[in-house]
């Protein structure tokens, strides 16, 4: 199952980018044997300043046809890492070819796009910077692959 991370804005060089790249590389390596991955980052920018609606249109175009859409949103479901791993495994086992994790801009995700999502996840009740959410998601993808593989990275 291919993974797309569709996000508003550009993750520039720096510590966040380094962490993101490291975790996605780990996910791609460990997920391959589990039929998870590869993962790809698709970044969009609303250069015309059209707000959440314009960002949503760009994000929708970035999502592959037929992909399961999972928004990363403060209103989403809070899960443990093992629950997230099971969810990824379930989507894979259901034959999903693509899953797109959608990360909005500074103002979040347009309500119309949230309504179209198949799932919505949250990293807790706090609001996180959208650039940091990418790093956190990449780490959780790697952790999920490690959990599904029975690896030692996740310690319950």
Question: What attributes characterize this protein structure?
Answer:
globular, five-stranded parallel β-sheet, 44% helix, 156 residues, alpha/beta
Polypeptide structure, described:
The protein has a five-stranded parallel sheet with strand order 2-1-4-3-5. Helix 1 packs parallel to helix 5 and helix 3 (81-93) packs across helix 5 (130-149). The chain is globular, with a radius of gyration of 15 Å. It contains five helices and five strands. The model has no long low-confidence stretch (mean pLDDT 94). The chain is of the alpha/beta class. Helix 1 links the parallel strand 1 (2-8) and strand 2. Helix content is 44%, strand content 22%. It has helices at 15-31, 51-62, 81-93, 111-116, 130-149; strands spanning 2-8, 39-44, 68-78, 98-103, 119-122.
Enumerate the strands of the largest sheet in spatial order, edge to edge or round the barrel: 2-1-4-3-5
Strand content: 15-25%
Q: Based on helices, strands and strand pairing, what is the structural class?
A: alpha/beta
The tally of strands reads 5
Number of helices: 5
Gist of the model:
The chain has helices at residues 15-31, 51-62, 81-93, 111-116, 130-149, and strands at 2-8, 39-44, 68-78, 98-103, 119-122. It is of the alpha/beta class and 156 residues long.
Chain-wise SSE layout:
Elements: E1 2-8, H1 15-31, E2 39-44, H2 51-62, E3 68-78, H3 81-93, E4 98-103, H4 111-116, E5 119-122, H5 130-149
Parallel strand pairs: 1-2, 1-4, 3-4, 3-5
Helix pairs in contact: 1-5, 3-5
